[in-house]
Amino acid sequence: MRSAILASLACASLLIGGVWIGQNVNLLPTDASINAPVYDELFKVLFTIGTILFVGMAGLVVYSLIQFRRKPGELGDGLPIEGNLSLEIFWTAVPAIVVLFVGIYSYDIYDRMGGMQPLHHEMHRHETSNVQERIWGGIGSGTVERTEEIQTDTLPIEVIAQQFAFLFHYPKGDILSGELHVPTNQPVSMRMESKDVIHAFWVPEFRLKQDVIPGQPTILNFTPTKPGRYPIICAELCGPYHGGMRSSVVVESAEDYQDWFKKNSKDTILDS
Amino acid sequence: MTTISPIEESSTKELVQIEKEHADHRMFGLAAFLIADGMTFAGFFAAYLTFKAVNPLLPDAIYELELPLPTLNTVLLLVSSATFHRAGEALRKNEAKQCQKWLLITAALGVSFLASQMVEYFTLPFGLTDNLYASTFYALTGFHGLHVTLGAIMILIVWWQTRSPGGRITAQNQFPLEAAELYWHFVDGIWVILFIILYLL
Amino acid sequence: MTIALPPNDQESPRELQPKGWLRYFSFSLDHKVIGLQYLVCGFIFYLIGGALASAIRVELASPVSDFMARDVYNQVLTLHGTIMIFLWIVPVVNGAFGNYLIPFYVGARDMAFPRLNAVAFWLIPPAGLMLISSYFITGAAQSGWTAYPPLSITTPEAGQIIWILSVLLLGGSSIFGGINFIATILKLRRPGLQLMQLPMYCWAMLGTSILVVLSTPVLAGTLVLLSFDIVAHTGFFNPVLGGNVIVYQHLFWFYSHPAVYIMVLPAFGLVSEILPVHSRKPLFGYATMVYSIMAIVVLGLVVWAHHMFTSGTPPWMRLFFTIATSFIAVPTGIKFFNWVATLWGGRISLNSAVLFSCGFIINFVLGGITGVALAQVPFDVHVHDTYFVVAHFHYIVYGGSVFVIFSSIYHWYPKFTGRMLNENIGRFHFLITFIGFNLCFLPQHWLGLNGMPRRVAEYDPQFTFINQISSVGALLMALSTLPFLWNVIHSAFKGPLAGDNPWRALTPEWLTSSPPPVENWTGQAPLVIEPYGYGKEHKEQINETTANTNSEKKNQ
Ligand code: HEA
Ligand code: HEA
Ligand code: CUA
Ligand SMILES: [Cu+2]
C-alpha cells in the first residue's frame, strides 16, 4: 500500500516536473519568422515527452540498481519471471500511442508551416525556358495564422549558392546582393540553385533550412516577423571553407526596406 | 537439402560423427550470396528507374534501342539455362560424356551472348560518357556482362574438371557443377529483368 | 542429404594451424581466434579514430581554425567517421562477438564457412591501413563519411578513390560475415535445439545479417558508380553532365540507415546476454524480444529518407518516412522495457559489466528520444546537419554501442583469457567514461539548436564556452581509456584465475573450460534449451551438465 502511494506520487511528480521543464526551459534562439513560434510549440511538446520518458527510464534503471543490488552474502537467484503478457501489451501500446500522437501533431505543425502545400513557383515561370523544369520541394508558402496582417504579394528572390558564398538576386529591381534584405511581415519566396556542390540555406532564427542543389532548383518560402540581423549559415559540407560560408539576413521595417531597395535598384522607374 | 530429423533420434556416437563431417551448407551460402548480388542489381535498377522518372532527357537526346540483338541475347541465355540443366542431369545419371557435351554447349552459348553484346556495343550511337542514360546503360549491361564472363569461365573450369577420371567433379561430388548452375540461372534471371527494364520499358 | 566434405578438406586443416600466441597473427580458421582478431584489430582502430576525435575536439576548443588547416579538418572528420563505423563498431559488435559466441550458442564447433570467415577478417586490416595511409600519401577523402556528390567528385581524386576502395573491401568483409552468420545460425544448430531456444544474441545476429546481406550490396554498387564518375567522368551523380545528386543520397542511405541498426542490434543482443546473468533472472519477454528485433529489421529497411528531409524530397515522401521512422521507437521501446523488467526484482551484482550495460540503457534512451524528434520533418528542418544530430548519434553509437562493447569485454574477458579483470579499475573506468561522455555530448544538443552547423572547423564565437566544455569531456573520455588498457593488459598476465564459469552463467559458452579448447567441447556439445533458466528448479540438472563437460575438459 505504501509503495503504491509512493509510486503514484513519483509518477505524478515526474509528469508535472516534465511538463514544467518542457514549458519553462528555453533552448532555442529568438523566433523571427512566422513559422518559428509554431516550431517552438512542437519543440515544447517533444521536449516535455522526451523529458518524462528519459527521466522515467533513467529513474527506473537507477532505482533497480540500488533496490535490487546484491547484498553481501546473498548468493541466490532472483525470481524466475519470464514475462508478463499484459505488461508487454501495455508497453507496446503506450509508445505506439505516443508516437502516433507525435506523428499526427507534427504533421499538423508541418502543415501550418506550409510544408504540405504545393509550391508556389508560378512567379518563376517566366525565366524557365521551354525545357520543362522540375522544382524541388522546400517549405511551401503561407501559413494559416496571421494571414490578415500579411500583405498578399510575395517577394520573389533568386538565391545562387556557390563555393563559398550566397548571392541574392531581386528580379524586381535587378539587385544583386551578398546580404539578404527582407521587409517584415511580407512573404518571401526564394528559388535556390547551386552552381557547384550542394549547400544549404539555414537561418536558425527562422527555424528553416533547405538544401541548395546543383541542377535541381529548390523553393523556400517564409515570412519574417522580427526586425534584426540574423546569420545565414551554410549547413551542408561543401568544401574546406564550408565553415566560413556565412552571410546575414536583415529583416527591417517596410520603409527601411524600401530605402534599401531604392538605393540599390537598377531600374530607373521604381514601382512600389 | 539437409534434413535434421533422422539425426535427431540418432545416438550420441552418430551425432559426433555428423558434427565432424559437417553437413554441406555451401549451396545455402551461395544462395545467400546471390541474394546479396541481386541487391546490387536492384540498386542499379532503382537508380535507372529514378533517373528515368525525374531526369527526362531532351527530346533530341533520346535514342530508341534496337530490339533484335538483345532479343537474340535473351534467347541465347534462356537456352543456355536449359542446356546447363541437361548437363546437371547427365552428371547425376553418371554420364560424363553427355555432361561434358552439354557443358560445352552452354559455354558456347554464353560466349556468343558476350560476342553479340560486343556487337551491340560497337553499333550503338552513344558512348559511355555521352549522357546519363548512356552511362547507366553501359553500367548495367556491363555489370551483367561481367557476371556472364565469370559464369562462362566457371563453366569451362567445371568442364575441365569433369573430363579426367581423377577430376574433382563426379556424380559423387556435384557441388561445383550445381553451384555454377545456380549462379548461371541467377545471371539469366537478372538478364530477363534487365531486358524488360532497359529495352522494353 | 549429408555430404562428406571433398577429400582435401577432410583432414582437418586446423591441425596445421600455428599454436600459441602466433595463431592470432595467422590465417586461423578457429572462430574464437578470429573473434579475438576482430576485437583487438577493432580496438586499435578505435584508438586511432579516437585520436582523430581528440584532434577534432582540440580544433573546436577555439572558434577559429588554428590547430588544423580547414581541408585537413575535413579529412580528419571523414577519417574519424569512417574508421569508427566501418573499422570499429561494425567489425566488433558483429565480427568479434559474433564469431566468438555464435558457434557456442548454436552448439557448433565452428562457423559454417571457416575459410570464408578468415577471409572476411583478413580483408579488414589492409582496408584500414589503406584508408589511413591515404592521409599521409595523397591526402584522405574530405567529403565526410557520407561522400555526397558532387563534392566527392570535385575534391582531390586520389583520396576519395582510396576511400571508396577501402569501404568496398570492408563492405565485402561484412557481406561474407553476414552470409556466414545466417548459415551458422540456421543450418549449424545442434540437433534438438529449437530456434526459439537460442540465446537472444543469435536472433540479433540473424536480424543484423539479413540487413547486411540486403543493404550492403546497394552501397557497393553505388560506390562503384561514384568511382566511375570520378575516374571515367560518367555523369551518374554529376549535375554538370545531367546526373542526379539526390539519387546517390537515396542509395547511400538505403544502406547507411540499416547500417545504424547493424551497429546497434548486435549490441542489443549482447546486453540481453549480460543482464540476466548478473541479475540472476531470466530474460524478460523472450518472444517479444525476438519479434521486436525482426520488426526493427523490417522497419529499418524503409526509413532511409529521414536523412534527406531538406534535400527537396516531395511532401508525401517526407510524411511517410516520418511515420515509419517514428514507429521504430515501438519495437525498440519493447526491448528497453524488457531489460528494465529483467533487472527488476533481480539480485544484481553492481560490477563493471552491469554498470556499462545500464549506462548504455540510459544513454541510448536519450539518443533514441532525440532520434524520434529528428524524425519529425518540421523539427528536422531546423536541426538537420547541426550539432544536434552529432549529439544524437554519438549518444547512440558511443553511449550505446561502445558502452556495450566495454560491458561485453568485462563480461567475457574471463572466457577469453581465463583470468578476471580488476573490478575496481573497471568501475572507475565506467565512472570517468560516463561523466566524460555526457560532458562531451550533452551540450552539443544546445549548440545544434542555437545555430552551430556540423563539419565546420570555425564557428561563431558565442559558442566557444560550450565547445570548450565539450572538449573537456572528450579529454576525460580519452583519459578513461588508459585505466581500461592497463586493466586489460595487466590482467591478461597477472589477473586472478577465473575458473571455467565465474559468473555461474547458463549460456553454452560458459559450459566449457575458459579459455575453451580448439573445438569448443572435448565431448559432445551440451544441449542448452534454457539459456536463461535462472532461479528455476531444474537448474540442478543443467549444473550437472556443466560439471560433466568440465570434467571432460581437464585433459585438454
Ligand atoms: C547505431 C546507430 C543509430 C541508431 C540505433 C539510431 C536510431 C535512430 N535514429 Fe539515428 N542516426 C545515426 C545513428 C543511429 N540512429 C547516425 C550516425 C546519424 C547521422 C548520420 C549522418 O548524417 O552522418 C543519425 C541521424 C538520424 C536522423 C537524421 C538527422 C538529420 O541528419 O537531420 C534521424 C531522423 O529521423 C534519426 C532518427 C533515428 C531514430 C528515430 C532512431 C530510433 O531507432 C531510436 C529508437 C529508440 C528509442 C525511441 C528509445 C527507446 C524507446 C523507448 C524508451 C520507448 C518510448 C519512446 C517513445 C514513445 C518515443 N537519426
Ligand atoms: C561510430 C562511432 C563513433 C564513435 C565511437 C565516435 C567517438 C567520438 N566522436 Fe565522433 N563521429 C562519428 C562516429 C563516432 N564518433 C561519425 C560517423 C561522425 C560524422 C563524420 C562526418 O560528419 O562525416 C562523427 C563526428 C564527430 C564530430 C563532429 C565533427 C564535425 O561535424 O565537425 C565530433 C566533434 O566533437 C566527434 C567527436 C567524437 C568524440 C570526442 C568521440 C570520443 O568518444 C572518442 C573517445 C576515444 C578516444 C579519445 C580514444 C582514446 C585514446 C587515445 C587518445 C590514445 C591514442 C593512442 C594511440 C593513437 C596509440 N565526432
Ligand atoms: Cu556551402 Cu557549406
Ligand atoms: Cu537513419
Shape of chain A: elongated
Radius of gyration of chain B: 21 Å
CATH architecture annotation name of the largest domain in chain A: Sandwich
Largest sheet of chain A: 5 strands, mixed
What binds here, in terms of ligands, is: heme-A, dinuclear copper ion, copper (II) ion
Query: What are the segments of chain B in which pLDDT stays under 50 over at least 5 consecutive residues?
Result: 1-20
Calculate the terminal CA-CA distance of chain A, rounded to whole Å: 75 Å
Return the CATH topology of chain B.
Answer: Four Helix Bundle (Hemerythrin (Met), subunit A)
Strand content of chain B: under 5%
Q: How many domains would you count in the coordinates of chain B?
A: 1
Fraction of residues in helix of chain B: over 70%
According to CATH, the homologous superfamily of the largest domain in chain A is Cupredoxins -  blue copper proteins
Structural class by helix and strand composition of chain B: mainly alpha
**Secondary-structure element string of chain B:** HHHHHHH
Query: Biggest interface and which pair forms it?
Result: A-C, 83 and 96 residues
What is the spatial order of strands in the main beta sheet of chain A?
3-2-1-5-8
- Please give the radius of gyration of chain A in angstroms: 26 Å
Model description:
The complex is a heterotrimer of chains A (272), B (201) and C (556). Chain A has helices spanning 2-24, 35-67, 85-113, 254-264, and strands at residues 155-162, 165-170, 175-177, 180-183, 188-194, 199-203, 208-212, 218-222, 228-234, 246-252. Chain A has 272 residues and is α+β, with helices and mostly antiparallel strands. Chain A folds into 2 domains: 2-68 and 86-112, no CATH class; 121-138 and 150-271, Sandwich (Immunoglobulin-like). Chain A has a 5-stranded mixed β-sheet with strand order 3-2-1-5-8, with no helix packed on it. In chain A, a hairpin with a 2-residue loop joins strand 1 (155-162) and strand 2. The longest helix of chain A has 33 residues, at 35-67. Chain A is elongated. Chain A starts with a helix and ends in an 8-residue tail after the last helix. The model of chain A is unreliable at 120-133 and 141-151 (pLDDT under 50). The radius of gyration of chain B is 21 Å and the shape is elongated. Chain B has a single domain, classed as Up-down Bundle (Four Helix Bundle (Hemerythrin (Met), subunit A)), CATH 1.20.120. Chain B has 201 residues and is mainly α. Chain C has 556 residues and is mostly helical. Chain C has a single domain, classed as Cytochrome c oxidase-like, subunit I domain (Cytochrome C Oxidase, Chain A, Up-down Bundle). Residues 1-14 and 539-556 of chain C have low confidence and may be disordered. Chains in contact: A-B, A-C, B-C. At the B-C interface, helix 2, helix 3 and helix 6 of B face helix 7, helix 8 and helix 9 of C. The structure holds heme-A (2 copies), dinuclear copper ion (CUA) and copper (II) ion. Dinuclear copper ion is lined by residues 164, 199, 234, 236-238, 242, 245 of chain A. One heme-A sits between chains C (146, 260-261, 263-264, 306-307, 325, 328-329, 332-333, 336, 365, 368-369, 371-372, 374-375, 380, 384-385, 389, 392-393, 396-397, 400-401) and A (53, 57, 95, 98-99).
